[in-house]
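Chain A, query sequence.
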Amino acid sequence: MKPFTEPIAAKTVLNPVRAPSMPFRWSVNPYRGCRHGCSFCYARSTHLYLDQPADDTFQRHIFWKAGAPDILRGQLERLAKLGKLPDHVAVGTATDPYQPLEAEARLTRGCLEVLAEFGVPFSVTTRSPLVLRDLDILRAAPAKAVNISLHTLDAEIWRRFEPASPPPRRRLEAAGRLAEAGVPVHIFVAPVLPYLTDSAEAAAELAEACRERGVRGVMVDILELVAPEVKVWFFSALRRHYPELAPLYGRLYHRSSRPPESYRGPVRRRMEAEFAKRGLLKSNGAPGPRGPQEDGAARRTDPAGGPDAVPGPACEPPAACAPLQLTLF
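Chain A, predicted structure.
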């Protein structure tokens, strides 16, 4: 089904990120909603702010910020007069800036041109090889990094959780072409899916593929379900494709939006060890001291505990662990 696209009148395109936990202070997101529609996407719940449901409407009704490059230019002109140009702008912190609509709308390209015009360093996070279209800008920009989100090379897992996104192997090839062109490339191994993509073997396979293609660094980020709507949507996909894992995920996520440290710590260490063996540095994907992660606005408090809550121990029996609304799927 072809998505419905709608322009929105935006007052700003360059937005401050005030959350102190975020490693960047400015972000640009030309689109709201994303055609990729990944089942684990933390931005799905932001459709509620547009009076849209946080279901598959997120990938079927895409909003684009009309005149985004011109709005951005006006903002940077005002900041330049004050001597306060950003030292780094993270592009694509909420939705993919190179989702299919970008091929026609070219809003992301226009915004990168404006950032380069003002000499503002930027990073881009995407799942799409469409980023290669803008190699001319990426080569010439004063400081930049491209972060390719890629959490698995397993085609079956990819099809089940993000079937509308570009295949993993195409993303790898895009990373290789960027590296060959001299553009710093990082891989965001995100999200790591418990019991599916968290093994040392999976990390070793991905690490070797990254090394062969000249990737500079990696960041490992374990699945977080940052809002009730995101948790419900993800669990519906999990129960559909891997019903045997639903009780295990219930144990991990019943108290918080993320698993307890007793799970996260060992998984992160064993995966990062595989990347380190191959000379891939731990990275936040930034061209400077800061790098893109989730948009602060997307990290809403989860009634089950919130993204910064201290997780408790797993509960028994498994059926009692998952919130009640998850059993509807």
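The chain is about 35% helix and 15% strand. Residues 4-277 form a domain with the TIM Barrel fold (CATH 3.20.20.70).
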